[in-house]
Amino acid sequence: MLSSKHYWDDPMQDEFSVNITSCTAQDGVYHIAIDRDVIRAEGGGQAGEKGTIHSGSDTIKITNTITLESGAMLIADAPVQVGKEVTIKIDMEWRLQMMRNHTAEHLFVSQLKRINPDIDLGYIWIDGDAGTVEILGTTEINQMFEVEKEVQLRINERHPIISSLISPEEVTSKVRARDGVQTKHDQIRIIKIEGVDESACSGIHAINTSDIGVFKIQDIRIYDESTRVHFVTSKKAIELLAYVFNEALARKQMYPFEMEQLGMVLDKAKKTSESREHLMALAVKLLAEDTRFETVNGIRFTHLFLPGFDTRDLRMCLKALPTHEKSATLLFSPGQKSSIIFWVNGLSHPASAYVSKIVEEMGGKGGGSKDSYTGGFGEAQEPQVIYNKIVQMIRKNLVT
Ligand SMILES: [Zn+2]
Fold it and tell me: Which of 57, 300, 351, 382 is most buried, most CB within 10 Å of its CB?
């Protein structure tokens, strides 16, 4: 018979006296079994619980709780003597957050099924950090936002959550089947979110939907035949919302825009970035076709001052430039952090021999292989002055 468990009846009790029934070393950790079912093992899409074992003056960490054929097993970082009576303390931060995330999953799935009754569920994972629900079939991103809104409404409405054990004959069509249904037992545990949802489940739940506080979808990944929704709740959701909002707020001071226009600002950034790619490709093509160069000591010396180029653009430019038997090429991108690439072909010294000294003298850093030297300047005061000095020095070094 399916009997009730401590963590179902009183999930707030966090300390228990138990006896160690077995302890074995396994792959660098210890599998410890205890005589009471007081800590929930991984199962039904929910992560295992964590905590500590207190034995005399020793504190042993429980990093996870798993289910083996022999029963629930604590994964611990040190051994405990079999037969010993110890105290187990549950990691309540992890448990409470898992209760909120898991209850949020009940709400999310129930609201999703209300809006779109035809969907099926795949993978589910809930732990003390976040929750992931996989939806099979096609979904739309806006529908996920609609579900999110409904979940938050159910949280705000403060629905009590009640669990009960019933016989299979008592199960009505209202009850939603989900992972962890205890069909092998003669009793089924039903979780009722009053007025919202009823489902069979063996997990630990919040006492009221309001315990969840805030529900926020963090990511939606749409694949060909499924969608994975990743969500956070409570303080993690508040931290996420504050982080994203403040990232925008900090920039609002620098480039004035209204918060309502954030989507438009991002669209514009994407467009600008695409246009820049096109312009850069064109600029590189033009440079490659008509590069000014000077001849020093029989060596073709090309040097270009290229505002607006980043290191990637400089490399693209270098690749596009025509190669010559004896050549030295300097590309310099000025900016708050200026960068240089110097490349040699068919010369008697490695690239660094021509530039590293002057770069370092002017407060820059760099390095590279035989043919190329890449460097940069932290807070370059006058990039044009630095550039001119490097060109002069290279000219001098090419002669010697
Ligand atoms: Zn549940």
Answer: 351
Q: How far is the CA of 190 from the centre of ligand 1 (A)?
A: 9
CA of 19 to the centre of ligand 1 (A): 29
20 and 60 housed in the same domain? yes
Nearest-CA neighbor of 121 among 138, 136, 105? Answer: 136
Report the separation in Å between the CA atom of 333 and the middle of ligand 1, taken as the mean of its atom positions: 58
Residue 116 in any domain: the answer is yes
CB 139 within 8 A of CB 126: no
What mean pLDDT is reported for the chain? 91
Could you tell me the pLDDT band of residue 22, with boundaries at 50, 70 and 90? Answer: very high
Residue 365: give the domain boundaries: 291-399
Q: How far is the CA of 293 from the centre of ligand 1 (A)?
A: 72
Using the mean position of ligand 1's atoms as its centre, give its distance from the Cα of residue 191 in Å: 7
- 234 in the same domain as 103: yes
Q: Do 361 and 306 share a structural domain? A: yes
Rounded to two decimals, what is the model's pTM? Answer: 0.78
Q: Is the pLDDT of residue 181 over 50?
A: no
Ligand 1 mean position, distance from CA 202 (Å) = 6
Q: State in Å: Cα 63 to ligand 1 middle.
A: 22
Centre of ligand 1 from the C-alpha of residue 392, in Å: 73
Count of structural domains, the chain: 3
Q: Do 215 and 299 reside in the same domain of the chain?
A: no
112 and 71 assigned to the same domain: no
Which of 57, 90, 123 is a domain's end point? 90
User: How much distance in Å is there from the Cα of 32 to the middle of ligand 1?
Assistant: 26
Distance CA 212, CA 235 (A): 9
Convert 176-205 to b/e letters by CB count within 10 Å (16 or more is b): bebbbbbeeeebbbbbbbeebbbbbbbbbb
Same domain, 385 and 311: yes
CA of 365 to the centre of ligand 1 (A): 57
Question: Quick check: 175 pLDDT over 80?
Answer: no
Domain final position from 213, 231, 246: 246
**Residues 174, 316: one domain?**
no
Indicate if 35 and 104 belong to the same structural domain: no
Flag whether pLDDT at 180 surpasses 60. no
**Shortest CA distance to 196 belongs to which of 110, 112, 119, 120?**
110
Q: Whole-angstrom Cα distance, residue 106 to residue 39?
A: 21
Token couple for 197: 């949802």
